[in-house]
Amino acid sequence: MTVDVEDYFQVSAFAPYIPREAWPSIACRVESNIDRILALLDNENPKATFFTLGWIAERYPAMVRRIVSNGHELASHGWAHHRVSDQAPNEFRDDVTRSKALLEGIGGQAVLGYRAPSFSIGRHNQWALGVLEESGYRYSSSIYPVQHDHYGMPDAPRFAYYPHGNGGLLELPITTMRLFSRNIPAGGGGYFRLWPYPVSRWFLQRLNRLEQRSAIFYFHPWEIDHQQPRQKAISIKTRFRHYYNLHRMEERIKALTRDFKWDRIDRIFLD
Fold it and tell me: Beta strand 218-219 with 2-5: parallel, antiparallel or unpaired?
């Protein structure tokens, strides 16, 4: 179980509508949403990995410490949600080392994992995986092996693999289901809100039973917040993707915690 810790105004789809320089003046909702998630996970007792933006952690260090004190893994989501595909290697190195150092300083534990904003590591910037390894990360969960207009590497392996051979950095792709000769998204996000819950449950059950694999599932704090401010000047497609079924998301996450056993990435894949 993984959570990408960012606020609603930081998603890549809103970048053309909400300038980055406006972020400090916008009231954040992430802290209250994280507290709801911590309470939800505490009731059912699964543990999760929280991929956290440095920008958020710098402003809410007490929230980060609550994540750690509740027994969850702290991991990096970069500093300010810059897509890796928009960064030069030196910029990316500065981004991931800065965020790692801050999170470790606040959380008091080693940060071993990284997830690229918008799954923005793909076929054309595999150099980023080498930078992560050089920067002290042990794993990445940044590649989504699907076809998508904003991200995706459909020919990537579906399950955990070492991009540079045995050993080194481990890549943990988001879960997909192989149907009709293509990879179907089955690991959370907007697709989890799109499919009826029994479909998502069937995907994950099939993965566990037939393929004998653990799922990598993700969601965002803003996805349980259907009362977040609505953006008006956005495209119809962006509106649908961002807001569809937000009011059902929290109950679906609760159902997931009842129907499956979950734990932190480091315990499942590194231990």
Answer: parallel
